[in-house]
Amino acid sequence: MGSSEERAKQNGQRKDNKTTEREEDTCALKRARCFCEKKKKKKERNGGNHQQIGKMKRKKKKKKKEEVKKGNASCVEYDSLYISLL
């Protein structure tokens, strides 16, 4: 039984499979690092910050709507001129 306790200590666990507070802290740090690395990789794949990309898309959509409004206004003016010529 002594050897199993030693093995448990080497693995970072007690014999009753409960981790100590210090071990939990190191696990949390590892998880946090892993999460940050995953986020960085995702940003690299997406080509930058995802939120910025979303903002750019929204700006483009707004510009398109404004152009359409201008286009419609010119069509209306053209129609009125065309009607006046008739």
Shape: rod-shaped
Number of strands: 0
User: Oligomeric status of the shown chains?
Assistant: single chain
| Number of discrete helical segments | 3
- Global Rg: 32 Å
Strand content: under 5%
Order of helices and strands: HHH
Unreliable stretches (pLDDT < 50, length at least 5) are: 71-75
The helix content is over 70%
Mean pLDDT score, rounded? 61
Main sheet, how many strands, which sense, barrel?
none
How far the N terminus sits from the C terminus, by CA atoms, comes to: 106 Å
Number of domains: 2
**Helix and strand composition category:** mainly alpha
Biased composition (Basic residues): 55-64
Region (Disordered): 1-25, 39-71
Structure in a nutshell:
With 86 residues, the protein is mainly α. It folds into two domains: 1-48; 56-86. Helices cover 83% and strands 0% of the residues.
Any chance you could write out the topology, listing elements then pairs?
Elements: H1 2-10, H2 21-46, H3 50-85
Region (Disordered): 1-25, 39-71
Biased composition (Basic residues): 55-64
